[in-house]
Amino acid sequence: MSQTHIERMSDLPAARLLAPGTAMCAGCGGLAALHQVCDVLGTRTVIVNAAGCLTLLAVYPHSPFRGSWLYTAMASAPAGAQGVRDALDVLRAKRGLPAEEDLSAVVLTGDGAAYGMGLSATSAAIERGLDFLYLCYDNEGYGNTGQQTSDATPHAARTATHGGRRGYPGLKKDLFAIWTAHRPAYAATAINSEPLDLARKVEAAAALKGPRLILALAPCPTGWGFEPAELVNVGHLAVRSGVWPLKEYRDGRVVHTRVPRPRLPVDAYLRAQRRYAHLFAPERDDAVIAEIQAGVDTYWSTVG
Amino acid sequence: MTRELMTGNAAAAWGARLADVDYVPAFPITPQTEIIELLAAWCDTGVMNARVTMLESEHSMITAAAAAAATGARVFTATSSQGLLYAMEMLYATPGWRVPFVVVNVSRALATPITLEPDHNDILGTRDSGCLQIHCATCQEVADSIIIAHRLAEDPQVRLPVLVNMDGFYLSFTREPVMLPEADAVRQFLPAYSALGAQFRSSAPQSQAAAVLSSSQYSYFRYQAHLASMQALPLYDGVAAEYERRFGRYHAAVDAYRCDDAEIVFFMIGSFATKARAAVDALRAAGHRIGLVRPRLIRPYPAAAIRALLAGKRGVAVVDQNLSFGMGGVLHAELAAALYGTSHTPLLVSFVGGLGGRDIAPEEFYEMAAITRKAADAGVVPEPRLLYTGEELRDMRASQTIAAAGKPAA
């Protein structure tokens, strides 16, 4: 990892450690976040991957990573990281593996695994105090299979399995709160459109030991319905409307790293995505928009 | 070296300890728990130099096992029954990683209804996973087979996980005399594990278990793993022979008992085969030419050895301690496939019994032998038999009466 402390945009690493030319969709917010994460983390990593969009980064015989890669399954990537970490520890203690051959275990997972199928394995890994970084790219649906509803899908968003007038009737699960309830070493939300904020969080996480979460909202052109060129704009709207709060947890305290003032109405964020188009046409659904706005307002009123 | 009394579970733990494993990811399930408790206690007190990590499920346990093996550690773990099934996705996935590790399965019948005593539906559910399978009949075999399994799994031409199976209760909780090999001698037989460069290191990054988008590449890797498994057959014979040279005990891929001049043979796996062995002795004493063929390897399938042992026999009573609903006994179907097209093929008679730990009595073995002999005389294959006595049925009817008490009539 970078030795200089990241304070401003000009401190961001110039290296581009993740190779281009992958099979991801144009304008993928998950890939954009991963680029930034890799640049700060460096190459002494094993990326332990759970089934999701980014599984198709490493397709035999190519890999865009300069570090190592292990694909596991959808539910058990944290257990894969446990096996890697435990093996490195025992090999160092018992078999004389030199310290310079050591590696950091990094779980790379989408929201489908992180919020749902993989949650039990994740919870257990945190509880065991596993020394690992957990990077979730959250595109709020099962993106790889065509954006079906996942446990991360937000209220009223249309998905491939909730395509009706109301969209998804449930609420987005609060993974950050689930993580912090485990009292991990570190947890943070992030987004690719705020690269300085993201880099500082990855740098902070990399300097710590124990379970560490980077939960990156991953705006998804194909799943959410916007042009790839709008990726950064959609991300800005998510942050400035207060829909995606940027925060970090350490030493038992949550601190917001960006407090949007004034907060934009959620309208602009919702209008930018076809998954919310049913809220504006054929007629505006004031009730649901107000409901979403109220959810955001309540969040910010409780966090000060 | 002295023999000491120990359970199959203790023998399994000793096998792992003598194999000097580095890592034991674990999750408890009856009747396997004694294995991981012993290993955890030994690692705790320092008599064994390994790390035990409790996982939250068998699915995670096998993931951690394979990931640690892919990082260059020698790995052992154990499970049973529903746990084996819970791990099934990873038992199918990890042979493709081409990393060696050893899993003991303590056979226990599957739900539903849920129960505790053994049969082989759990382990045979992994039949097509790509893991090799060694089936044990005694506690001595359990200890020896774990050491043999590590050596076989780690052979550069194999590099596949190995499942070592023993029956719950009948072996797991039964003390038998076991001769443990000396640790130094085991180190000679099983040198320190080398990942042969297929490992995660800072100086040599690599990708493992990556996706393919080409059916041709997919086929290549699947064929390669199959051929590695097939290669394990002749390699097993060499490993078993070396084990015998060093330790004086020979564990053949297919164990044959009093088969040379036999006309009829029992065909079974696991600890219940020792019941068949006793029946063979009794029937021999009564003048019958009968024997027992007991495959220890089920994957890879030792077809040639089985064909050679059965060539010229008149009849084979295949006793399956498993049931594939809608098909019958798994061993019977596989044996029929292995013998198809051979000359001097014996007549096969299928029996299913011993489900959920149900005993197979000596009289039932005598009856199975008689049925098989008659079938061979007549040249007609009888319908498969599901072993169940009139007394059992009467007891079952009594239970049904109690279960139905107070319920409205249908």
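Residues 215-247 of chain B form the longest helix (33 residues).
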